[in-house]
Amino acid sequence: MADRLTARAAIAALTADFTEYAAPAGTGAPASPEAPAPGSAASPRTAAAPGTPASPGTAASPRTAADGPLGWSGYADSRARATARTGEQESVVHGTATIGGLPCVLISFEFGFLGGSLGQRTGDRLEAAYEEAMARRLPLVSLIATGGSRMQEGMIALTQLHRVARASARLRAAGPAQLAVLRDPTTGGGWATLGAGADVILALPGAQIGFAGSRVRPADADPGAYTAEGQLAAGQIDAVVPPGELPAAVGHWLRLLARRDAPPTPAPVPAALSSAGLPRTGWDAVLRARSVTRPHAEAYLDAYFTLRLPLSGDRCGGTDPGLLCGFGLHEGEPVAYVAQCGTATRPAGYRTAARVIRLADRLGVPVLTLVDTPGAANDAEAERAGAGAAIADAFTAIAAARVPVTTLVIGEGGSGGALALAAPGNTHVTADSYFSVIAPELAAAILKRAPDQVHATAEQLRLRPQDLVDLGVARSVVRSVGRSDPPGGR
User: Any idea what DSSP says for residue 295?
Assistant: First the structure.
C-alpha cells in the first residue's frame, strides 16, 4: 500500500514553491457564469502563507450551519475533530505552484480530514482551483487521496461532482491541460471526476484506485483490479511512478503539455534508419518491410526524441502493446507521437491513438505517426471490442486535427488499419516499406489466383515506395542521413 502523506507533505514532496489560496467565501453555491474568475482583477483573492491552514471563509448560512445541510447529528463535532487532528479546515488545499520550473495550479487532498471526502465546501475549493487555472491559463495538477462523497451531506455532497465536472469541462474548453496524481486511496467521485477525467493520469505504486471503495466492493472481487498496477494493465491510467521520480515526471509533463498559442509547425520527418536502396520489385518491397532485422518504431522514437513520456490505454479497459503513444521533445519542441510496432493494431490501440491526437490538437502540439502494421486486428475478440468504431475514431481524430500531422511509413502499410493513422497529404515512406490496399497474398486469394501468382499480384498493386510517390500517395521516400537517391527512382 502506498504511503499516505498529508496534503501538505504531498505538496512538499513535489515542490518547495507553493502559494496557498484562502478558501472561497460563500456557502458553496455554484458561481454564476457571469461572476468574475477567482484571482482576476475584478475578484481579488488573498494568498495564505505556505504551510498554514486556509481560512474557512465567511460564516455559514443557517442551512449549512452546525451539523450541515442534513442536520446530521455530530457532523460539526466530526469536522472539529478533523481540523484539530490535521490542522485543515477542509479536505483539500489549493493554490499555485512551480514544478520543474513551470507554473501550475495545484490541488492536494487531505485524507486525514474525513477520508478526503468531497462536501459542499470541498466543491467550493475545487471549483475555485479550476477557475484559477482558467483565469491564469495554467495547467491543473491534482494530488488525489479521497474516499468519495461525504455521506453526512447526502445529495448536497454528491452533486459537487456536477460542479467539478462542469469546471473541468470549462477548463478543457479553454485549453490548459489537467494532470492527476493518484495517491492512496483514490476512489468514488474523486476518481470519477478529477482522477479519471484528467488528460494524463499518474499513480503512486500500490495506490488503491477504483470507483468502489474497499468497504463497498463485492466480497469476491479481485483486489488486484483496484490497484494502480491493475488499472495500468486495464488501460485506465498512463503510468505508475515511484515517489522519488514524481517531481521530475510531473515537471516533464508540464513542459510537454504547455499550451501553445502560436500556430504549430509540422513535426520534422524522421530520417530513415536503414541505408537500404529502393526495392526492385513489389515482392522485394514486401519482404523488406516484413524483415525482423529492419529498424522498428522503438528505434525511430529513440533516435527522434531527447525526452519521451508514454501515454497508455484507451480508458475503456484496453491496451495495445503494439502501439506506442505519448509526447516527447524533438529539438527542444514538444511533439505528440503515435507509433505502430509491426503487429496487427487492436481496437484499444486506435482508441488510445485518437485520445492522444485529440489532446495534442487541443494543446496546439504537432503530431508524428509511424505506420507499421500488417493491418488492423480482425479476430473475433477485436470485432467484439469494436474494431470498426475504433478505426473510425482514429480516422476522425486525424481528419479533424487542426495541428499538423506528419506520417512516416517505416514498414508494412496494411490497408485501412495503416491508413487510419496516416496523414492525408503529409505521408512519407522509407525504402524498406510498402503501402497497399491489401496484402498480395490476400489479393491473390480473393482473385482466385494460384499461389505462384502472389509475386505478380504484388507488382500489380504498385506498393513499392517509389510507386507510392508516383501515385501521389506519399510525398517522398525518406533516406538515411547521407543518402539522396531520387524519390521516384526505379
Answer: -
Strands 405-414 and 434-436: parallel
* Residue 309 three-state SS: strand
Alpha-carbon distance 374 to 95, whole Å?
50
- From the number of C-beta atoms within 10 Å of its C-beta (0-12, 13-18, 19+), residue 480 rates as middle
Report d(CA 388, CA 271) in Å as an integer.
Answer: 32
In contact, 197 and 165? CB cutoff 8 Å: yes
If DSSP codes are grouped into helix, strand and coil, which group holds residue 418? helix
Distance CA 92, CA 110 (A): 6
φ, ψ of residue 120 to 5 degrees: the values are -60, -45
281-319 residues labelled b (16+ CB within 10 A) or e (exposed): ebbbbbebbeeeebbbbeebbeebbeebbebbbbbbebb
**CA atoms of 249 and 16, how far apart (whole Å):** 16
Q: pTM, whole model, 2 decimals?
A: 0.89
Q: How many CA atoms lie within 13 A of 342 on its CB side?
A: 18
C-alpha cell read off for 208 = 488503491
Write out the three cell numbers for 423.
496523414
Specify the residue for cell string 522519488. 244
Polymer length in residues for the chain: 490
Which amino acid type is present at position 314? D
Residue 81, C-beta contacts closer than 8 angstroms, at least 6 positions apart: none
Residue with cell 442551512: 63
Reference 198, options 155, 148, 257, 252; nearest CA is 257
β-pair type (102-109, 178-187): unpaired
Give the integer Cα–Cα distance in Å for 287 and 279. 10
C-alpha cell at 224: 488486484
The label of the residue with cell 475555485 reads 128
Q: Which residue has the cell 477485436?
A: 382
Mean per-residue pLDDT pooled into runs of 10, the chain (490 residues): 81 97 65 35 37 40 70 95 96 97 98 96 97 97 96 96 97 96 95 96 96 79 88 96 97 93 92 93 96 96 98 95 98 97 98 98 97 97 97 98 98 97 97 96 93 94 97 94 50
The 3-class secondary structure across 131-190, one letter per residue, is HHHHHHCCCEEEEEEECCECHHHHHHHHCHHHHHHHHHHHHHHHCCCEEEEEEEEEEHHH
- The C-alpha cell 494532470 sits at 179
Whether residue 120 contacts residue 159, with contact meaning beta carbons closer than 8 Å, is answered with no
| Joined grid coordinates for residue 280 | 526492385
pLDDT at position 49:
38
